[in-house]
Write a structure and sequence with these properties.
This protein is mainly alpha-helical and 165 residues long. The chain is built from 5 helices and no strands. The radius of gyration is 26 Å and the shape is rod-shaped. 19% of the residues are buried.
């Protein structure tokens, strides 16, 4: 009888250990996901602030175009400073799908495609081209294009940030 009771005790101990292990792992995963969401919120708010800076810079660019003095404009758009590391990581693991809908994910991907080093080079080269070959209408079109892009990305990111809270 003692052997049976010891066996039952060992079995209950094993089951309890498994349950505790599962609960601890679940808690750690929940905490990790919560921290990852905070990181994503931080990234998005950081990107919104950077977009605000670029909108301010695009206003200076527009003023130089409108005053026919683009050659005096020396601003630079550092689009590669946009941060999408957490969003990309969450997309790779699939956890982004639990928190955002298809349109939000598409908006983040579009922002990532527009705010990077390659587009930074293209945009700043357009400004240099416009300075060397100034045609007011063409330069104004470039400013409008980028301002609209920035405003669209800012609005999308602000909407996503509200959903994450």
């Amino acid at each position: 009888m003692d052997s049976l009771l010891q066996g039952v005790g060992v079995f209950i101990g094993i089951v309890a250990g498994v349950i505790i292990t599962i609960l601890v792992q679940t808690y750690r995963a929940w905490r990790s996901e919560k921290q990852t969401l905070k990181n994503l919120e931080f990234e998005i708010s950081l990107n919104v602030r950077r977009i605000d800076d670029w909108l301010e810079e695009s206003n200076k660019w527009r003023n130089a175009v409108n005053s026919d003095s683009l050659q005096t404009y020396n601003g630079y758009f550092d689009l590669s400073k946009a941060l999408f590391a957490t969003a990309n990581s969450m997309l790779a693991t699939g956890s982004l799908y639990r928190h955002l809908d298809r349109d939000d994910i598409a908006s983040l991907q579009l922002a990532g495609a527009d705010l990077n080093a390659n587009v930074q080079l293209l945009m700043n080269n357009h400004i240099l081209y416009d300075k060397a070959n100034f045609v007011k209408q063409d330069a104004a079109i470039h400013v409008d294009f980028w301002e609209n892009k920035f405003k669209e990305h800012k609005a999308n990111m602000q909407a996503i940030a509200r959903k994450l809270k």
